[in-house]
Amino acid sequence: VHCEPVREIAMPHLLCVCLCLLLTSGYSWVYEKTVGQVWPLPQNVTYYTSQVFIEPSNFHFRVTNNTCPILDEAVKRYTDVIKKMLPRNNHQWQGCPDGASLQEVLVTLTEPCEDWPNLHMDEHYEVHVNRPDYDNLTIVSSSSVWGLLRGLESFSQLVTPATDAAGCLVLNSTDILDYPRFKHRGLLLDTSRHYLPVPVILNILAAMEMNKMNVFHWHIVDDESFPYQSITYPSLSDKGAYDSKHLIYTQDNVKNIIEYARLRGIRVIPEFDSPGHTRAWGGGANKLLTACFTNGSFNGEFGPVDPSRSQNFKFVRTLLEEVKSVFPDKYIHVGGDEVQFGFQCWMSNPTVTQFMKDNNITSPENLEGYYMN
């Protein structure tokens, strides 16, 4: 008689039951799309039942105090956002219903603009829509241009097409006092393993603005490719990009991405990871990578940056100095992760092990520390 363990028989059926329960119970997790509510949820927000209507052709923002190109561009951008909220197939103008009409939003910046977003930037803001306490005015205010960017985004999220009046927008009277919980709200994008065209990156930055994210962590190079076109070492992208003519980021591309992000209050922090994750660097930098050995002979493979060669430190330092000059943010990311996968290569190389012996470095972990310091 052939017997099977009960556990082996029951487990597939149990998995099927769990899957069915998950799928069916999932329906209770589907929520209706919110309309006229702010995302992320503000620290303090009150929605009132009274409403105001916007006729897009008669609507505008008015800056009442300090201004600068960042704010000027934001006002143009959000004016365009409001005007494009009506459905494209709407050809019947019915006018707004009787009630309060909103033609002007006051944009008040109480302090001069900063030029660049930074770790310690102030993103507090207030929004007051048609409130008696403010003479029924609608105001977006902040002491920082970065706060105004977040406030304008929140205001735009309050506005929706009116359901009972074609050609009209509507929003509830609202009070918002908001500030971020975290100073660093980032998104990492890897353009080494999968090259992304500049317009796609700009669309991602626009989506980050909608979600009030403020750090674009650009994982621009890695083992798979080196698409950054270096001023000092152009051979890195010539030899390391998937396509050195079309799948690269030129200096103009990088500047345009940084500027697009700056206007949206988004920092751009580039990552140039080393000593690991540098395989794509090898073609454009002679003797940069460690040659791996098997049974005392080179086996055709390469590992992390070779820390036994002083020229390699000069090479990496020069590259990072260029990166620092191209990317205005105070921080750049130098990686240093997953080097352990290259430890065996380091320890197989007689030049590296002799270097460790000469410098009293007793382990590959300490060698990594020596490199990073």
Provide a short characterization of the protein structure:
With 373 residues, the protein is an alpha/beta fold. It has helices spanning 6-25, 69-83, 145-158, 198-210, 235-240, 251-262, 310-326, 343-348, 350-358, 364-372; strands spanning 44-54, 60-63, 100-101, 104-109, 125-131, 137-142, 160-161, 169-178, 186-190, 215-219, 267-271, 289-294, 297-305. Residues 182-373 form the Glycoside hydrolase family 20 catalytic domain.
Question: What's the arrangement of secondary structure elements?
Answer:
Layout: H1 6-25, E1 44-54, E2 60-63, H2 69-83, E3 100-101, E4 104-109, E5 125-131, E6 137-142, H3 145-158, E7 160-161, E8 169-178, E9 186-190, H4 198-210, E10 215-219, H5 235-240, H6 251-262, E11 267-271, E12 289-294, E13 297-305, H7 310-326, H8 343-348, H9 350-358, H10 364-372
Parallel strand pairs: 1-3, 2-4, 4-6, 9-10, 10-11
Antiparallel strand pairs: 1-8, 5-6, 5-8, 7-8, 12-13
Helix pairs in contact: 2-3, 4-6
Describe the 3D structure.
The N terminus is likely disordered. With 373 residues, the protein is of the alpha/beta class. It starts with 5 loop residues before the first helix and ends with a helix. Helix content is 32%, strand content 21%. The protein is elongated.
